[in-house]
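The pair is quoted verbatim as follows:
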Amino acid sequence: MQAVVLSAGKGTRLRPLTEEKPKALVEVDGRPIIEDVFDNLLAAGADELIVVVGYLKEKVMDRYGDSYRGVPITYAHQREQLGLAHAMLQVESLIDDDFMLMLGDNVFRANLEDVMNRQREDRADAAFLVEEVPYEEASRYGVLDTNEYGEIVEVVEKPDDPPSNLVMTGFYTFTPAIFHACHLVQPSDRGEYELSDAVDLLIQSGRTIDAIRMDGWRVDVGYPEDRDRAEERLRDETGRIVEQGAQTDGSSTSTTN
């Protein structure tokens, strides 16, 4: 399956970390965010990476060239950063069939394969991971409004008064139907073409959409403190893996009297 990575933004909220490098190359625990994104997508079965670049694009292209760990990379240039739906349209001509999408500023340790499996089983036009966040943080994301049966009735991008605290994360699978929706999206109050508005158009048109609760964790690296939080989570996880390995190979022992 092809995998698209949206990585064109300037990362203004991450300054000063992004003054001389694109957000994709900001390091988390010693490696660029985009490498963690690539590794997640490869583990989920991606056989081609399509990266949307923009701000300081040459630094990403020069660093990774035409492949990553043997998987080919194709680049698409978003000349103006006009939102995620606009970024999606830059790859429309490159997509052959169903595809994965990951935002290039998220660190994931989650059940990505579940999203793909559900989409295939339900023949859905979109499937994505969702999570509950504190209400005060929900306005940072695309927020889901559900009915009494738990069905999604609307997606609202960065609302001032969120209808819930259930939000889209940064991993999706789509059929090419998403491109038609992206073409129909109108600029939001922020002046951007929002991906959440495109997903909402699919919902309103009666398409099958699956939202899968996230099993694991992710950090949206939008601010410098988010980078620090992601590093803490990764180091905690590494520590647990090392400890479990030590117990498994017998190097951790106990003594009883």
Q: What stands out?
A: Residues 251-257 have pLDDT under 50 and may be disordered. The chain has eight helices and 14 strands. The chain has one domain: 2-240. The first helix runs from residue 33 to 43.
